[in-house]
Specification:
This protein has 471 residues and is an alpha/beta fold. It has 2 domains: 268 residues, Aldehyde Dehydrogenase, Chain A, domain 1, CATH 3.40.605.10; 186 residues, Aldehyde Dehydrogenase, Chain A, domain 2. 40% of the residues lie in helices and 22% in strands. The strands form 7 sheets. The protein has a 7-stranded mixed β-sheet with strand order 14-17-18-13-12-20-21, with helices on both faces. The protein has a 6-stranded mixed β-sheet with strand order 9-8-7-10-11-23, sandwiched between helices. It has a 3-stranded antiparallel β-sheet with strand order 5-6-24. Helix 12 links the parallel strand 17 and strand 18. Helix 2 runs antiparallel to helix 4. The longest helix has 24 residues. The chain is globular.
Length: 471
């Protein structure tokens, strides 16, 4: 098992590497090259030269490039799913779903770019103007730095690479250290495609040193980052005058109205809270329940949670596998125990078996407990009793995060009020806030970030508008 980096189209074998151990059983899952700031600068210089050719590549070639990658990825679905399962412990059935979504994300990016265009401008619309041939068009920014997380190490890479490359940019990717092989294999499909722009994609591995070198350089025009608020804040301060797109933390919440279908709501909330072991930026963390249906919903939520299959990610029926590392499991248990010591009650027995943390439904929580006011990133969800929708909206908005919220209701007025008053980047009615369609705009407000992903919206972030007047 060797470790490599992609310096543009050149595959370089690493002399120094680190091993990635499976979060489930501790076996060696992959190896990652140990990169330095010098490697990051070299990759940026390669991208700077490649960006000139990438801009010239005809749109049909760029679209064919992405569609070729999507086709090959679809053929290698099981192989990629296995890597996801090995490196981050994602249950195999859900690993396949991520591969499928990645194929769709890449395909959507190609289809979207074909239809994106500028507009003509009526320059004589005001008395100070006069007739001219005027229009605006989109052009690639140049070099994009993409930094991606561990929780969706394939599809979230695609959400950055595909829009950037199809728009005519060159990219330097720094993937999560937890899934180096996943990123390497996807990059290989892009780089070895017969439609590829030479050297338009490089991949370097590392943590703070490499990330800082990439972000602070004057070469990239765009920084696209998905990760923690802490790192996002550092990027914002060190990036300088660049376009910065940040998809950061969340504390997703939902409200269960007295008119809601409680059976359906409970079954969906169990998925929203515990999918991917709660390691999702839009994982359902807070459930505000109308007092009139609180007890009934709490029982149904506990029953729905008890039905989830927990265990080996290699088993087809497993819903919930391990957390990413020991620290995550220890933090989850500490937060639950802390809440219980402060008066909270667990409707499902708190249990941790190594890195597998069993889904935990908490009741009688208060707004100051960490499991409510901070991002848990673990399979823990809290039920909070409220009297009205107004109270639920106030509590849901009383958070430094605003990524996605939802409401379960059959009251049209309540649905409309929630859409108008909830302060988040996305609102879902009658499903979980964890719902994301890759074609939609995705991103948050407040500490949840700036900018939007989703193929069309990422392309907008990664292009510049050029205005033209011909007299």
């Amino acid at each position: 098992m060797e470790a490599h980096v992609w310096m543009g189209s050149l595959e370089v074998k690493a002399h120094n590497y680190t091993e990635r151990l499976s979060p489930y059983d501790g076996r060696v899952a992959s190896r990652a090259a140990v990169c330095s700031a010098d490697d990051a600068h070299k990759a940026l210089q390669i991208a700077q030269h490649a960006a000139k050719e990438a801009k010239k590549a005809p749109l049909h070639q760029r679209c064919s490039w992405l569609l070729d990658v999507a086709s090959k990825l679809k053929e290698q679905r099981d192989e990629f799913a296995q890597v996801l399962c090995d490196e981050v412990g994602k249950p195999i059935a859900y690993a396949r779903i991520e591969v499928d979504r990645c194929v769709e994300t890449i395909t959507l990016s190609a289809e979207t770019m074909r239809s994106m265009h500028g507009e003509t401008i009526n320059t004589d619309a005001m008395p100070s103007g006069r007739k001219a041939h005027a229009y605006w068009r989109r052009e690639p920014c140049g070099v994009v730095v993409a930094i991606t997380p561990f929780n969706f190490p394939l599809n979230l890479v695609a959400h950055k690479l595909a829009p950037a490359l199809v728009a005519g940019n060159a990219v330097v990717l720094k993937p999560t250290p937890e899934a180096p092989l996943c990123a390497y294999k996807l990059a290989k499909l892009f780089i070895e495609s017969p439609y590829a722009t030479p050297n338009a994609l490089s991949v370097v591995y590392g943590d703070a040193e490499v990330g800082s070198a990439l972000v602070s350089s004057n070469i990239p025009r765009v920084i696209s980052f998905t990760g923690s608020v802490m790192v996002g804040n550092i990027i914002t301060k060190s990036a300088g005058i660049k376009k910065v797109s940040l998809e950061l933390g969340g504390n997703a919440a939902t409200y269960i109205d007295e008119s809601a279908d409680l059976e359906y709501a409970a079954s969906r909330c169990a998925v929203g809270a515990f999918a991917n072991s709660g390691q999702v930026c839009i994982s359902l963390q807070r459930i505000y329940v109308n007092r009139a249906v609180y007890d009934e919903f709490a029982q149904k939520m506990a029953e729905a949670t008890a039905k989830l299959i927990v265990g080996s990610p290699y088993e087809e029926k497993t819903f919930l596998g391990p957390l990413i590392d020991d620290e995550a499991a220890e933090r989850a248990m500490n937060w639950v125990q802390s809440a219980i010591s402060e008066g909270a009650r667990s409707l499902t027995p708190p249990r941790c078996d190594g890195r597998i943390f069993y889904p935990c439904v908490m009741a009688d929580v208060t707004e100051t407990m960490k499991i409510v006011c901070e991002e848990v990133f673990a399979p823990i969800v809290s039920l909070v009793k409220v009297d009205t929708l107004d109270e639920a909206i106030e509590k849901m908005n009383n958070s430094p995060y605003g990524l996605q919220f939802s409401v379960f209701t059959n009251n049209l007025a309540h649905a409309t009020q929630a859409i108008d008053e909830l302060d988040a980047g996305g609102i879902v009615i009658n499903d979980i806030p964890t719902l994301r369609f890759d074609i939609q705009p995705y991103g948050g407000v407040k500490l949840s970030g700036v900018g939007r992903e989703g193929p069309r919206f990422a392309i907008e972030e990664m292009t510049e508008i050029k205005s033209v007047v011909i007299l």
